[in-house]
Amino acid sequence: MDFYLLVYKNTSDALKGEEEFKQRKIAHAVYPTPPQILGSCGISLRFTEMELEDVEKMIDSGAVYKALYKITKISIIKIKGFE
């Protein structure tokens, strides 16, 4: 099953991100960042396509994050983010 990861630069940002997910009542799980995603914190927030629109609204309102990825069986696709 495909899913999405919101990746953070550091643990502090990830914890703030999780708090924002909770406040907005967006279903999620704390998930280890895959080793293929370099230069990121060791934890990410995992969610499904059903929550994608809400997460994008959160990002557009100024949420701090490093990148948004779609994870499939065969690939990791960067959707948006910073270098």
UniProtKB/TrEMBL annotation:
Residue span(s) of domain Putative Se/S carrier protein-like: 4-69
**Highest taxon in the source lineage:** Bacteria
Fetch the InterPro entries from UniProt: Se/S_carrier-like
Q: Which Pfam families match?
A: Se_S_carrier (PF11823)
Task: Report the protein name in the record.
Answer: DUF3343 domain-containing protein
Q: Which organism is it from?
A: Proteiniclasticum aestuarii
Mind giving the lineage of the organism this protein is from?
Answer: Bacteria, Bacillati, Bacillota, Clostridia, Eubacteriales
